[in-house]
Amino acid sequence: MSTIRARDLAKTYRISEKQPGLAGTLRHLVNRRHREVVAVDRISFTIEPGEIVGFLGPNGAGKTTTLKMLTGLIHPSAGELEVAGYQPWRRQAAFLRQITLVMGNRQQLIWDLPALDSLRVNAAVYGIDEPEARRRIGELAEMLELGPELQRPLRKLSLGQRMKTELLAALLHRPAVLFLDEPTLGLDVNAQARVRDFLADYNRRTGATVLLTSHDMGDITALCPRVLLIHQGQLFHDGSLAALTQRLAPCRQVRLELEHLHPAEAFAGFGTLEAHQGHQVRLLVPRAQLTERVAALLERFAVVDLEVSDPPIEELIGGLFRQRAAAAAAGAEP
Amino acid sequence: MRPPLIRDIRRYARSLRCFWGTSLAAELEYPLNAAIELVSVLGNLAGSLFVLQLLFAGGPSLGGWSWSGALVVLGLYTLLDGFTTCLLQPNLSRIVNHVQTGTLDYVLLKPIDSQFWLSARTVSPWGLPAMAAGLGLIGWALAQAGPGAAAGLRSPGAVLLALALLLAALVILYSLWFVLAALSIWFVKVWNATEVLRYTLVAGRYPISAYPPALRLLFTFVLPVAFLTTVPAEALLGRGSALWAVGSLVVALLCLAGSRLLWRFAQRFYTSASS
Amino acid sequence: MRRAWRVARALLGSQYALMLEYRAEIALWALSGVLPLIMLGVWSGSGAGAAAGLTPQQLSHYFLAAFVVRQFTVVWLIHVFEEDALQGRLSPLLLQPLSPLWRYLASHFSEQATRVPFVVLMLVVVGLAAPGVLWWPSAGALLLGALAILAAFLLRFLLQVIVTTLCFWSERAAALDRLLLIPYLFLSGLVAPLDTFPPAVRRLALATPFPWMVDFPARLLAGEPVNAALGFGAIAAWCLVLLPMAHLLWRAGLRRYSAMGA
């Protein structure tokens, strides 16, 4: 049986429109105007037990809304949804014990208290008895490489340590499904890597299903064999990460800082010129020809600095959808 | 295997112990607060007694209440004020923060009643001096009121009634606070509505009959101040009337049910409107 | 001088626009100032006013005036200051070539301006609920009363500046402010007219700054016979005592703040 089953899941918000100022408020009282905004537009997918699935999409694509529907924080406007055998929006206690939600930008632990105190509260709320709770805390603390930090007030911990204690608190009740919204937000490279390792390890050990969103492609690359890409509320891609990268990033980005100024035409033949501002130049180069093109660039120009990277996922997705829109427009013409 | 209901009750009881244990530990890090609270309680009490004495300068009674009767009302007010500082203020004024920072999501995802969590998550010991002072004042005033009042309280039934009315007062006070605090789900900007409540409830320092008729109606039917201090005080003085007692219990139940309903409605709004 | 005028206009203008955004909160703060009206209810029901030689009309005029005075002398400096310091907004303010206190003062004036319609609305409600209690003060009383309210506000602001500077040293300065609120509440005339005090307590109260903050402006507004020169003199004297203190404490506090590298 699938852990998550979503069919034609949709969420439409009714947004009331109000003119600014007092007059606008008064007019709004008399004559309310509403506008429907489609945040999630009939998406369908299933996730099997033990899968780690990455949830991608630019800001405002509907990622968070979907995540909130899956956890039961938002009532879907239409469609069918089942998580761990329950309908999430009813938020039955038995369902809530099966899941957990971690948001990288919001804390559930108490700022002024040592994490252990907050953990004891969670243990009581989830009905885990003391010895069992101690055992689980010990186990998770070991996996997360947390020790005396748990006895220090939360405010005295580093961002990475805080995130790890948040994870510990979120996993104390051994949830079968983990929802992680930007779990590595703001963490430095080391802490990020440790959180990723832990999540992979946890998934291996417990067989828990993990669904995570991230802006950081690194998280997704390291953890998720499967990704769901959402754009403008629609499911655009459901499949392996390799297939997605192939589809989205056939090119790599080459960023150059040049000694001298050159006109835009000078870069023709090296790749697609993305940005050209004074001494700074950004080019998109097909993966297969990367080495020869870079070599040619170095030969042709006096290069002060050079950097090769994958274009940001948002730009890729944006570019892709611009292409699709252009193709659709072209197809419509006779 | 214990039946689920008992298990749930035990779980809630253990959660409550944990909630209060952790918050007391945090609060006791500031011992200076104890001194400040004590001075503040004593100062407020002295001031209130002074004003009450001024009000009694015109005659032996205030709205038909003797000096010691009015003291019982003042004692009840002080007690409720302490209760507010202990439980209502620290918990309910935080709802708006949960809404603003989005941590309400975490509360809603706990397998425990969210109204229970929001209302009982922390406790502040700094209302205890006021509660103690209120109880002391009530005891002293009852002793002053003489044998008549004491005789009224001698039967277990009368004591029980007085306690029930006091409980009703606590429930009404809680519900008023909760309703106003929960409004911040819709209107984040009215986060300070509970302050208005706190300042308006000052009216409960004096017996309800001390006010002009229009205000008396207001304080009975709109903002039920009468049920907070005057009605329990009458029961304590052994002259509780059945009508007021029943009225008070009914109002308490209605308020509690109202707060519960509003919260369910608020949750539905929150889960369908937030993004 | 012209620079001061320009700065004042710019500050007041921007702060007023800001306060308009907070009008819902301000309406509620205005509503939370009902204490004098509640006290009017209690006093009019007791014989204590008459015993002190006050007619019912005098009593109602006094408390309504006290209500207005209280509305326009509310000071919340310490709370915004604490918040600003905590959120790290204070440091950029301190970099500007203008003491943040002027900015806070301007925002207090703007808040009072925003309050005006709500206070008028509340008075209208009172007038409808109890016809005949409202009255129109004479032009002289109105002018002197408004001046006295302004003076009382400045005195309260100054007093709170002193408590606020203690924020530089202690996290509990706001608690101290709450303690100061107790004598203010009972000795200022907010809950009982000073005329009803026993003579000894009255003399004691008059030796503190508190009665000049409510009782004096309220009685001016209510048209009671008041020694206006004495009242304004007392406020000026208290300001002269508090001003150097506030100045020294503020400078010492800033030195401490910068020494801590915050």
Describe the 3D structure.
In chain A, 38% of the residues lie in helices and 29% in strands. The two termini of chain A are 48 Å apart. In chain A, strand 8 and strand 9 form a beta hairpin. Chain A has 334 residues and is of the alpha/beta class. Chain A folds into two domains: 44-246, Rossmann fold (3-Layer(aba) Sandwich); 250-309, 2-Layer Sandwich (Alpha-Beta Plaits), CATH 3.30.70. Chain A contains eleven helices and 13 strands. Chain A has a six-stranded mixed sheet, sandwiched between helices. Chain A has a four-stranded antiparallel sheet with strand order 11-12-10-13, covered by helices on one side. A three-stranded antiparallel sheet of chain A has the order 2-1-4, with helices on one face. The model of chain A has no long low-confidence stretch (mean pLDDT 85). Helix content of chain B is 75%, strand content 0%. The radius of gyration of chain B is 20 Å and the shape is globular. Chain C is built from 13 helices and no strands. Chain C has helices at residues 2-21, 23-31, 35-45, 48-51, 56-71, 77-87, 90-95, 100-129, 139-165, 173-187, 199-206, 215-221, 228-259. In chain C, helix 9 (139-165) packs antiparallel against helix 10 (173-187) and helix 9 runs antiparallel to helix 12. Chain C is globular. The chains are: A alpha/beta (334), B mainly alpha (275), C mainly alpha (262). Chains in contact: A-B, B-C. Chain B binds chain C through residues 30, 32-33, 36, 39-40, 43-44, 47, 50-51, 54-59, 62-63, 187, 189-193, 195-196, 198-200, 202-203, 206, 209-212, 214-215, and chain C through 22, 24-25, 28-29, 31-35, 38, 41-52, 129-130, 172, 175-176, 178-179, 182-183, 185-186, 191-192, 196-197, 201.
Features:
heterotrimer, A: 334 residues, alpha/beta, Rossmann fold, Alpha-Beta Plaits, six-stranded mixed sheet, 29% strand, B: 275 residues, mainly alpha, 13 helices, globular
